[in-house]
UniProtKB/TrEMBL annotation:
Designated name of the protein: Probable sugar-binding periplasmic protein
PANTHER family, A to Z: ARABINOSE-BINDING PROTEIN-RELATED, BINDING PROTEIN COMPONENT OF ABC SUGAR TRANSPORTER-RELATED
Cellular component terms per the entry's GO annotation: periplasmic space
InterPro entries: Bact_solute-bd_prot1, SBP
Localization (cell): Periplasm
Signal peptide: 1-22
Entry's family note: Belongs to the bacterial solute-binding protein 1 family.
Highest taxon of the lineage: Bacteria
Organism this protein belongs to: Ruegeria intermedia
Signal in keyword set: yes
Amino acid sequence: MKRFAFATASSLAVLAASSVMAEPQAEVLHWWTSGGEAKSVAVLQEEFAANGGTWTDMPVAGGGGDAAMTALRARVLAGNAPTAVQLKGPAIQEWYEEGVLADISNVAEAEGWDKVLPASIAAHMKCEGTWCAAPVNVHRVDWIWANADVLAANGIEMPTTWDEFNAAAEKLQAAGVIPLAHGGQAWQDATVFETVVLGLGGPEFYNKALVELDPEALTSDTMVKVFDQMRTLRGFVDENFSGRDWNLATAMVMNGEAAFQIMGDWAKGEFLAAGKEPGKDFLCASTPGDGYLYNVDSFAMFDVEGDDKRAGQELLAKLIVAPKFQEVFNLNKGSIPARTDVSLDKFDMCAKISAEDMATSSENGSLLPSYAHGMALRGAQAGAITDVVTAHFNSDMSSQEAVQQLADAVANSY
Ligand code: BGC
């Protein structure tokens, strides 16, 4: 008995030592492939390597992450999940329910995440009370970006209402400038759409329509007006918009070919990576109306075998939420830190506006999850809405027809 007990204790010690000694490995699936995005993810790769980790990169190009999510599904179905995956919002819960996520509570508890993350962000990272994802940032979605010189040359101020936006766009169009740089991809249409829902309907309406999926809100006169505005915006994009990547649309604003882009603040990451300065070369303002649409990037760890991979997951989770990474990564990415204790001293005016507006919105109940970026709804419901938004944007469908299709698509999506 004694011998046996001794043998067990010593083999446990060997096991523990080997897991501590294991060299951290991580295959990381993400969709950060544009200039600003690549610069941001490089920060994590460097820190991982500096801490003894070996990073295997699995980038899947495609803004908004639709292609990355398809690649993920294929890998999980093949029984070969990547170690760490850029995953967010309700999709984290959906994968948890499939029983394929690793529990990272030991890291979260050791690092005191509960003390440094706002409760609303922490809630997205927890699955039935355990920690199942690590947050990277807070991106704001409801932004307008503008070329400062183009606006000045045409005597235009940043619009504060949708009517002002339309008037500015008409003026620019008459002057031969493309008013709105847009990429005709479903997720980009959805991005513009949700800012119009928030702007024209207000925070309460947004919540009813795109979070609660209330049929009355979906078919309301307000939603008819939202589709009217989408039709108006369709008239402000150039004829080559179809299929264009979001970062190429940002480049059109940068080089003065177009005046505005409606896009989340990953667009700021592109401006910054190209050496442009906010307030001088480009302008930022929230899209017309009240409220704040948040989009929190995070990484979930998948249940994989091997001490080296588990060590990689623990190291990654720890680095991602650590203050140094949250500062440097977000300075490049265009977003703000998810942690509340990182100083914004080094951040630009757009980031400061974002942080202030987020605090105000959080107090007055207008801090809302982005449906277009997978924070508000499960995949089936979000997809049903986006299909209608895109079909409307790319056809001559009436607004009345669109709201009817919207309500039907949502009802049939469960
Ligand atoms: C992600 C951002 C990313 C953007 C464009 C968003 O859904 O949250 O991190 O930069 O898509 O790819």
